[in-house]
Design goal:
Helices cover 28% and strands 22% of the residues. By secondary structure, the chain is α+β, with helices and mostly antiparallel strands. It folds into 3 domains: 8-30 and 76-223, 3-Layer(aba) Sandwich (Phosphoenolpyruvate Carboxykinase, domain 1), CATH 3.40.449.10; 228-296 and 389-591, Phosphoenolpyruvate Carboxykinase, domain 3; 300-381, Phosphoenolpyruvate Carboxykinase, domain 2 (Beta Complex), CATH 2.170.8.10. Strands 1, 4, 5, 6, 7, 8, 9, 10 and 11 form a 9-stranded mixed beta sheet that branches. β16 and β17 (292-295) form a beta hairpin. α12 (419-427) packs antiparallel against α13, α12 packs across α17 (578-591) and α16 runs antiparallel to α17. It is globular and about 65 Å long. The N and C termini lie far apart (70 Å). The relative contact order is 0.12. It binds guanosine-5'-triphosphate, sulfopyruvate (SPV) and manganese (II) ion (MN).
Amino acid sequence: MENMTSNKSVLSWINEKIDLVKPEKVVWIDGTQEQIEALRAEACSTGEMIKLNQELLPDCYLHRTAVNDVARVEGRTFICAPTKEEAGPTNNWMDPAEAYEMLYAIAKDSYKGRTMYVIPYSMGPVGSKFSKIGIELTDSIYVVLNMVIMTRVGTDVLKALGDSEDWVRGLHCKCDIDEEKRYICQFPQDNTIISVNSGYGGNVLLGKKCFALRIASYQGKNEGWQAEHMLILGLQKPDGEIRYICAAFPSACGKTNLAMLIPPEGYYKNGYRVWCVGDDISWIRKGEDGRLYAINPENGFFGVAPGTNEKSNPNALASTRKGTIFTNVAHNLDDNTVWWEGLDKNPPANAVEWKGNPWNGQESEEKGAHPNSRFTAPAVNCPCISSEFENPDGVPISAIVFGGRRAKLAPLVYQSRDWNHGVFVGSIMASETTAAASGAVGVVRRDPMAMLPFCGYNMADYWQHWINIGAGLDPEKAPKIFNVNWFRKDDEGNFMWPGFGDNLRVLDWIIDRCEGKVEADETAIGYVPKAADINLEGIEDEVSDAQLKELLSVDVSLWKDEVAGIEEFYGKFDRLPATLKAELETLKANIK
Ligand code: GTP
Ligand code: SPV
Ligand code: MN
């Protein structure tokens, strides 16, 4: 096959990698329908993918990963900066020279008898000033077909790149999917990613977490912008105007759900709408008018399947009805469709579960779908996709929202006093772990800005970068910063807030605060809503006045314990910004 570019830096890098992995042939991905169809057919012929019912789910496919390869592996993810200090205390670090040597030994000859696919892709609309280009080499058709959905792939990407050397190098080798030799390595100084021995999403779709967060966060620090683990939504109010909100929640903590929210009935009737710009990643930079603007660098959704249903997230479900790849869900053999826990109350009786074993959905203790099973769906499928999705200039941000899963402590919502206090609020985020990464689930851990697994450099420098960004903004134009918690539980372990569509009630308060339309109570941790300002119309049966009060309460004795935890966490950082140290002192004084 002919090369799709004459860019010397691209060709020489690819040739080096061909010498290393020794593919039988090389195929450049141009993203044409014809090529995609041929790859789908080939993947089905080898069993790598299963073609689903084309009447009910046109152009949809099912894939099962290896049983030992179902989530991101944070323990095997490395930031290979020149020094350990540059990676910081929250990242695994490996010396770049040692890492290359080890990875090349694993990758050597690993494409023998296989095809190398060359995927040129753009993160962000091709040609936008926000956008960045990457090239991923992979020996997996599954990766190619996912990247075609998740990013902009094809010849126009290489045209936009021209002769530039500014592109991110990505090498993925499936090898033997050996857990012991699985490594996800980022080399921020070299714009390079190497991923070996995995076939799972976040480990191998290199445009996503590896590039758009780990490498891009480092690029952003050097170039004066930000790469964040944030959804972007547009909230349309009855006046027809749309305000944009970016929100950072850790993995499997509700970004996709919030980004596609359908307002409660009363709000909907009054003209409230939510438009989805992005569900996972934001690239943010200052616009000419002095406000912050965000784009979603992705082109699709790699969403959590379990729990997605007609009630919880009809827009996500609708997005998966065509052109979607399902990974590790149950296969309904009766009608050749898919099923997962929480889709409906009728598990298929004649099915295959995510590991590939027969499953009747009734008697088994086993789940049909893995808790981190996913759908890869084109963004254009989403009924509430924003008209600004392709806008190369992004959307202006009114509010930044942090949040996590906290059964106790964190109130439903509170607002920071100013930008720097908001950075502090983001830096002390903590959340219960989920199935999105391998390891224990439900353990509270610090996850600053939901970036703990994704920050490509020293987290203390990342916080300083946040402070610097704020210092460059007119406070009047800077987004206001909030924290939310949809996951507070009562003593019986029940969620105290209905969540999902009803989260709009909180977003509405947030926008009112941004526009100075509503008062708030100042507490030790920031501004908390007056109970009367959270509209409970339609959910009075679910949330009593007493319960709302409890949801909005700030328990000073619990915050004292929290401060001890924050101090311990901050103690890891030699380069902790003085601003954050001062914010912590303020919090301590406030809860005395
Ligand atoms: P990643 O794709 O891993 O980054 O996850 P995400 O942040 O997009 O999370 P997602 O929206 O997929 O939600 C993950 C899980 O949280 C699903 O099981 C949802 O059902 C559940 N969830 C989302 N929003 C809410 C909410 O408001 N309340 C409750 N109780 N659960 C929610
Ligand atoms: C996450 O874990 O935050 C995800 C899924 O969005 S993955 O692409 O696997 O990282
Ligand atoms: Mn995510």
